């Protein structure tokens, strides 16, 4: 048993290391000035994975230009989306889980079906509508389409279904209205689901590329993935800065997941089974 | 029933996020402040100096940039203009795309600026390359050329006499291949192209070998990579990889860095290589781009052109912006302040060429005269045909396959058939 446990731990550590290795290479390379990381790239040398002789110059240059503003825009857009998106998802999920109204099942199926339609498939006609509504190149234009997230509604609804009916009945007897019950009873019990849904909303905006490209690419409203892509143009490419930007964009969701991994896993694994 | 009340804060927050309503074309005043939207594929800093300059020169003008990543520029502009987006006033376009854009009615006629543009250009064809059916539809602020760069230390150690910067004594491609073969073993990559497999880079090989643009017919509407000239060029290209003189697995974003890092003997590349090599303190030299023996010299050229949207309601001011940025020495100089790309306005060009030649010290001696000769006499423009993007895309697949070992004759025939089918669909 002991040997098999050691082997399991070793295998898990090896798998984790291999998964982490490309990101580590990105980090190590981003500490080398300009394009000098290619010196150890062709042929690939073990030195490519050592962050030696490097500096944070790429990060300094990167965070002194358009990318810094784009990064702040990404935080703003993703943050507002999480707050407003959760408000929408919580209310929709609560209605679908607790309220009895005719056609509730159909509405739920409709929400799920619509969430299955890839956003990219509707992005171009939608961008035309947004342009007509004068929402191009605005924060509202960047945020609005991400607010109604079908998967977040699904996760929250499944979680709410697991809240014991007795608790809800007791709250009603005590005079809490439906909104009070949601606010004081259901939501405090649903932190893992809220964190899970919030992370989904955050990631949907953090990694968005097509929509920000269609709706807002002025320096003032540009999001970080677009600013990162703009670091390579027809005649020049500073790979050191691109690697630094890639690392920053990858590290942010990783750090978030690191902090909230338990709740995130719980939100996905216990949906519909709590009670 | 409580939902509307609950969503009120969201509506208020979003309303606060929304930018102020833009002025509609119909409301645009004839005089007074005008805001132009200018879409390009560069970081905002690249165009800021020329925008600042022109805003000072043209009181009332404000230019707002949209910085779209290069791979998505065409699709994004097409999407916005197809939807009748009148908010896009000026955008950058590769001259070869101009006919496709013109066919879709995207481009305003700039012919009124043609006499001034011709008078100010380093070479008239820099202007006429943006003409379709006698109408000027774009103006190029920048241009490019191609040279043969070499690693001086590597050549000295191998006992190879460096190629000459004198265009009359340019090497043949065979000479370059022979010299590269002698570097095998002493340098990791004997010969690199700045942009492997790109039509921009390889068009001069086909032209120099007598194969033309890869198109034939009065209207240049029939693909022709199977002709003897292109077969000669493709066979040469294929041989570089078969013989291990050029690498198969290197992507184009790394070629310049590899040369500047001392890992290559030669690179065929544009003016931007000078600053990269100077930065890494590489001992390098520059020579004229090679030619096929018995063929005519040919070098890649062109860069972005600026165009005015036919759907813009602010065309008058947009044309004045183009005039300022492209046809005045100060404006054109400001446009290259960050990008350091060759300008097209003749006075701006003179100043740039002097500084460009000085930037590399002894390594770039004679480069100014060489560049001017290439721009005036050997530059080949990409053909602005209907369906250019399809043509270029298929040509580049052909080059990539040949690089990876496909038989040039069979693969070129297949490419011709594919392009012909695509052209037929486009009418």
Automatic annotation (TrEMBL), chain A:
Key word Transmembrane helix present in the record? yes
What CDD domains is this protein classified in? TM_PBP2
Domain ABC transmembrane type-1 span(s) in chain numbering: 71-260
Cellular location(s):
Cell membrane
Q: Which family does it belong to?
A: Belongs to the binding-protein-dependent transport system permease family.
Keyword check for Transport: yes
What keywords tag this UniProt record? Cell membrane, Membrane, Sugar transport, Transmembrane, Transmembrane helix, Transport
BP GO annotations: transmembrane transport
This protein's membrane topology, according to the annotation, is: Multi-pass membrane protein
Q: Name one GO cellular component term.
A: plasma membrane
Q: What is this protein called?
A: Carbohydrate ABC transporter permease
Q: Give the stretches traversing the membrane.
A: 75-99, 105-130, 142-161, 181-202, 240-260
Any Pfam family the entry gives: BPD_transp_1
Automatic annotation (TrEMBL), chain B:
Give the UniProt keywords, A-Z: Signal
InterPro entries assigned:
Bact_solute-bd_prot1 (IPR050490), SBP (IPR006059)
Signal found in the keyword field:
yes
Q: Which residues form a coiled coil?
A: none
Check the UniProt entry and state the signal peptide residues, or none. Answer: 1-22
Q: Which domain of life is it from?
A: Bacteria
Protein name, per record? ABC-type glycerol-3-phosphate transport system substrate-binding protein
């Amino acid at each position: 048993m002991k040997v098999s446990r050691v082997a399991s731990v070793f295998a898990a550590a090896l798998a984790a290391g291999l998964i982490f290795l490309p990101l580590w290479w990105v980090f190590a390379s981003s500490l080398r000035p300009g394009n000098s990381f290619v010196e150890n790239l062709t042929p690939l040398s073990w030195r490519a994975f050592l962050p030696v002789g490097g500096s944070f110059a790429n990060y300094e240059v990167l965070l002194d230009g358009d990318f810094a503003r784009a990064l702040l825009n990404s935080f703003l857009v993703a943050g507002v989306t999480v707050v407003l998106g959760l408000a929408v998802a919580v209310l929709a999920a609560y209605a679908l889980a607790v309220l009895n109204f005719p056609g509730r099942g159909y509405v739920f199926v409709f929400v799920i079906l619509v969430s299955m339609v890839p956003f990219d498939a509707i992005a171009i006609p939608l961008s035309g509508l947004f342009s007509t509504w004068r929402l191009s190149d605005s924060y509202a234009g960047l945020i609005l389409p991400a607010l109604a997230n079908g998967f977040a509604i699904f996760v929250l609804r499944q979680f709410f279904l697991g809240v014991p009916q007795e608790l809800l009945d007791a709250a009603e007897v005590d005079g809490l209205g439906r909104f009070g019950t949601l606010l004081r009873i259901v939501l405090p019990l649903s932190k893992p689901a809220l964190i899970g849904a919030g992370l989904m909303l955050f990631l949907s905006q953090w990694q968005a590329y097509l929509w920000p490209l269609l709706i807002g690419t002025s320096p003032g409203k540009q999001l970080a993935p677009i600013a990162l892509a703009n670091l390579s143009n027809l005649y020049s490419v500073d790979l050191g800065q691109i690697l630094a930007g890639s690392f920053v964009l990858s590290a942010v969701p990783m750090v978030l997941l690191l902090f909230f991994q338990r709740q995130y896993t719980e939100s996905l694994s216990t949906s519909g089974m709590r009670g | 029933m409580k939902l509307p009340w609950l969503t009120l804060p969201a509506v208020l927050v979003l309303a606060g996020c929304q930018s102020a309503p833009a002025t509609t074309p119909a409301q645009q005043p004839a005089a007074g402040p005008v805001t132009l939207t200018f879409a390009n594929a560069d970081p905002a800093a690249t165009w800021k100096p020329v925008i600042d300059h022109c805003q000072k020169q043209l009181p009332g003008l404000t230019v707002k940039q949209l910085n779209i990543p290069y791979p998505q520029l065409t699709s994004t502009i097409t999407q916005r203009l197809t939807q009748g987006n009148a908010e896009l006033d000026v955008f950058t376009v590769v001259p070869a795309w101009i006919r496709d854009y013109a066919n879709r009615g995207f481009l305003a006629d700039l012919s009124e600026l043609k006499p001034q543009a011709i008078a100010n250009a380093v070479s008239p064809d820099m202007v006429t390359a943006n003409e379709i059916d006698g109408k000027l539809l774009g103006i190029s602020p920048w241009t490019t050329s191609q040279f043969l760069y070499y690693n001086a230390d590597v050549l000295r150690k191998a006992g190879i006499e460096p190629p000459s910067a004198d265009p009359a004594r340019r090497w043949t491609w065979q000479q370059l291949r022979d010299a590269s073969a002698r570097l095998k073993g002493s340098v990791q990559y004997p010969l690199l192209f700045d942009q492997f497999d790109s039509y921009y880079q390889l068009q001069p090989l086909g032209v120099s070998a007598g194969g033309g643009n890869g198109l034939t017919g009065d209207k240049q509407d029939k693909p022709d990579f199977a002709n003897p000239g292109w077969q000669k060029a493709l066979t040469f290209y294929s041989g570089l990889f078969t013989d291990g003189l050029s690498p198969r697995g290197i992507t184009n974003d790394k070629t310049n860095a590899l040369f500047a890092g001392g890992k290559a003997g030669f690179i065929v590349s544009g003016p931007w290589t000078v600053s990269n090599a100077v930065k890494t303190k590489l001992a390098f030299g520059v020579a004229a781009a090679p030619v096929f023996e018995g063929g005519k010299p040919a070098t890649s050229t062109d860069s972005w052109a600026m165009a005015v949207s036919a759907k813009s309601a602010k065309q008058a001011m947009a044309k004045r912006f183009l005039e300022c940025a492209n046809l005045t020495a100060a404006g054109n100089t400001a446009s290259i302040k960050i990008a350091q790309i060759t300008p097209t306005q003749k006075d701006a060009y003179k100043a740039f060429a002097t500084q460009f030649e000085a930037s590399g010290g002894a390594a770039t001696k004679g480069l100014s005269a060489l560049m001017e000769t290439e721009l005036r006499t050997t530059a080949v423009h990409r053909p602005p045909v209907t369906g250019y993007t399809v043509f270029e895309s298929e040509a580049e697949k052909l080059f990539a396959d040949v690089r990876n070992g496909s038989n040039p004759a069979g693969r070129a025939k297949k490419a011709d058939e594919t392009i012909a089918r695509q052209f037929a669909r486009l009418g």
